Structure formats: structure tokens, C-alpha cells
From TrEMBL:
InterPro entries: DUF6957. It holds the Pfam family DUF6957. This is DUF6957 domain-containing protein. Residues 19-124 form the DUF6957 domain.
């Protein structure tokens, strides 16, 4: 079952989105200037995942001022906190804000480099992804 959920997540249809067109060094430099004093992470090969939550969980997320959307990135380019290494995958916490090539979770700003995608996923698919490999720093699955 988990394999089927992940297969659909990774290979099923998605809406293509464009992120920042700068190269890695330019993204890192611009992010240091723009997000002084705030944790940020530059990523590539990313997907925004609109999570279909049960009503009670969705209300809980919204009461925190967040949206039921997370970022999955296959490749970390730079992590200002130094927790993730280059090319680590990550799964963010729920979305606080999204604008163009900047995805902000509760605690971290993510700069989206290159092309990415957006799709809807079930909560079980998100749980399967969280259990798969290096799931990054997301906190939304904690009970």
C-alpha cells in the first residue's frame, strides 16, 4: 500500500510550477541578504503537496494560521541552520505563506529553485513519504 501511495505521489500527474531562475550561488547570496536573522533553506527538485486532511485536522492546522500544504524537496542546496547537507531531501512543516518562489513554513523560509510541481495528496500518502528516507524537519505528523 505505501509503495502504491508513493508511486502515485512521485509519478502521478501534477501542475508544473516555476521557481527562481538564479543559479545556486546567486540564490544563496540573495537569500542571505533577504532573510537576515531568519532560518532559510534553498532547494531544488521540489513539490508543493496540498494535503487532504480530515476536517478536524484541517481545522487544527488553520487555527494555527497555517494551510494544509507542505513542501517536499528532493535536493537541499543550502540550509542556513546547517541541519541538512547538500542533496538531502526534506519535508517541511505546514505552509504559512507561499509567493512565487518562496514557501514559508511555521519556522523556515524555503527558496524554490528551478522547476517544481504542485499536487494534491492524501494524508496516508504524506505519512508514507514521511517514513521514506530522510524526511527533513517537518513537525506536522507529531501527535
Amino acid at each position: 500500500m505505501e509503495l502504491e501511495l508513493l508511486s502515485d505521489l512521485f509519478y502521478g500527474p501534477a501542475c508544473v510550477l516555476n521557481g527562481a531562475k538564479l543559479d545556486d550561488d546567486e540564490l544563496i547570496r540573495a537569500s542571505h541578504e533577504a532573510f537576515t536573522g531568519r532560518p532559510f533553506c534553498v532547494v531544488r527538485h521540489w513539490m508543493l503537496l496540498d494535503v487532504m486532511l480530515p476536517t478536524s485536522q484541517e481545522q487544527e492546522v488553520k487555527m494555527q494560521g497555517l494551510k494544509p500544504c507542505v513542501l517536499y524537496a528532493q535536493a537541499t542546496v543550502y540550509d542556513s541552520l546547517g541541519e541538512l547537507k547538500r542533496d538531502d531531501s526534506l519535508l517541511s512543516d505546514y505552509e504559512r505563506d507561499f509567493d512565487s518562489c518562496i514557501f514559508e513554513s511555521k519556522d523556515v523560509v524555503y527558496i524554490l529553485g528551478g522547476r517544481g510541481a504542485r499536487k494534491h495528496v492524501s494524508f496516508p500518502a504524506l505519512q508514507a513519504l514521511s517514513a521514506f528516507g530522510n524526511a527533513g524537519r517537518g513537525a506536522y505528523l507529531r501527535s
